[in-house]
Specification:
about 350 residues, alpha/beta, 8-stranded mixed beta sheet, 3-stranded antiparallel beta sheet
Length: about 350
C-alpha cells in the first residue's frame, strides 16, 4: 500500500499546487487571520459559496496549511501563514509564479523535452521565457517578487557564512531587486555594492535600496551579462543565475566576470550542487525539489542544475578555478562555490 500511496500522492501533486493557487487568489489565509473562523464567514468575505469554501479549507487542512478545530471552524498553521501577503516572509508571489500557466503549460511537454533536449516553453509560447516576461509586465513584476521571496532566506544566511570583510566592493550579477546584496551590505558596513541586471530585472531595486538605506553605498547598473559585466569590484556574486542557462551560456557569463576580475578577486556562485549520484539511502534533504528544479530548467529556460564536476568544467572553460564548495546549511540546498582566476 505504501508504494501505491506514494504514486497517488505524486499524481495528485499538480492538484495540490492548484489548491495553493486558489488559496492565494481567494485570500483565505489573510481572511482567517490570527484567530479561528468559520468557513461560511471566510466564504462571505471572499465572495464565495460556503460549501465549496469548506471543501477548499479542508483540503488546505489536509495539506497541513490549516487546522480544523470543530466542524467548519479553521485556523492557520505556521506553514499556512506564509500564504499571507502581508507578512515580511510571505511566499505568495512564489506560489503565484510557480503555479502560473506560463510556467505549468511547458511541463505538459516534459516528455518532448526529454526526447529532444529542446526547451518546451519556446515551442508552446513561440518565444523564450525571459522575452515572454518582457512582453507581459504584470507577469514580469510577479516573477521579480517571487525571486525576491525565494532569495530572502539566503539573504539572511549568506552574510554570516562567508568572509566578506576581505573585499571592498561586490557586484551582484543578475541581482534582481537587490534583496541578496542588501542583506550582505546591511551586515558589512565597510562594503559597497553594485546590483547588475537588465532594466526589467532591476525594476524594484530602487525600492529595496531605499528601504535598507543603501542608496549611498550601492549603485544599480542595467546591462546584459552575455555582453559584459561592470568593472571595479573585487567580488562578483551570482545566485541562481547559472542554472538558468546552458553550459556554453554559463561559460560566457563566467568569462565576462573573469575578464574584469582584479588580482586577488573572487567569483562567488550560490547554487545547489547536486551529488554525483542520488543517494536515496542517505535521504534527499529537500524532498527532491532540486531535481524538479533541474527539470524546470529543462522545459522552461534550457538551463540545468549542476554537480561539482559540472561547475568545475564551466569554470575551467571560463578561465576560473574552483577553490572550495561549502554547503550553505542555513539556506539548504544552496552551496557557496568560490572561484578564482586560473
Amino acid at each position: 500500500m505504501a508504494d501505491r500511496d506514494l504514486i497517488v500522492r505524486l499524481a495528485f501533486g499538480s492538484m495540490a499546487a492548484q489548491t495553493l493557487r486558489a488559496a492565494v487568489r481567494l485570500g483565505v489565509v489573510e481572511l482567517i487571520g490570527d484567530t479561528p473562523r468559520r468557513a461560511a464567514e471566510v466564504a462571505a468575505d471572499a465572495g464565495a459559496e460556503p460549501q465549496p469554501m469548506t471543501r477548499l479549507l479542508r483540503a488546505l487542512t489536509g495539506l497541513g496549511l490549516l487546522k480544523e478545530h470543530a466542524p467548519d471552524y479553521f485556523s492557520v498553521t505556521a506553514a499556512g501563514a506564509l500564504l499571507d501577503p502581508g507578512r515580511p516572509d510571505s511566499f505568495t508571489s512564489f506560489v503565484r509564479m510557480f503555479t502560473e500557466p506560463a510556467i505549468v503549460r511547458a511541463w505538459e511537454h516534459l516528455d518532448d523535452s526529454v526526447r529532444t533536449g529542446e526547451i518546451a516553453f519556446d515551442a508552446v509560447f513561440g518565444t523564450d521565457f525571459f522575452s515572454h516576461l518582457a512582453q507581459h509586465p504584470e507577469l514580469s513584476a510577479e516573477f521579480n517578487a517571487a525571486m525576491s521571496q525565494a532569495v530572502s532566506e539566503t539573504a539572511a544566511a549568506l552574510p554570516c557564512a562567508f568572509d566578506f570583510g576581505r573585499f571592498t566592493t561586490v557586484t551582484d550579477v543578475g541581482g534582481g531587486d537587490g534583496t541578496l546584496l542588501a542583506g550582505v551590505l546591511d551586515a558589512h558596513p565597510g562594503l559597497t555594492g553594485v546590483v547588475f541586471d537588465t532594466a526589467q530585472g532591476l525594476a524594484e531595486a530602487p525600492k529595496t535600496l531605499e528601504r535598507h538605506g543603501l542608496k549611498g553605498r550601492c549603485s544599480l547598473i542595467a546591462g546584459d551579462f552575455f555582453r559584459t559585466v561592470p568593472e571595479g569590484s573585487d567580488l562578483y556574486l551570482m545566485k541562481s543565475v547559472l542554472h538558468d542557462w546552458t553550459d556554453d551560456q554559463a561559460v560566457t557569463i563566467l568569462g565576462h566576470c573573469r575578464e574584469v576580475l582584479p588580482p586577488g578577486g573572487l567569483v562567488l556562485i550560490v547554487e545547489p550542487v547536486l551529488p554525483e549520484i542520488v543517494d536515496t539511502d542517505a535521504g534527499v534533504t529537500d524532498g527532491g525539489v532540486t531535481y524538479l528544479s533541474d527539470l524546470n530548467m529543462l522545459v522552461n529556460v534550457g538551463g540545468r542544475e549542476r554537480t561539482r564536476r559540472d561547475f568545475e568544467d564551466v569554470c575551467r572553460r571560463a578561465g576560473l578555478s574552483i577553490t572550495s564548495v561549502t554547503p550553505l546549511t542555513e539556506a539548504a540546498p544552496f552551496s557557496l562555490i568560490e572561484a578564482v582566476a586560473g
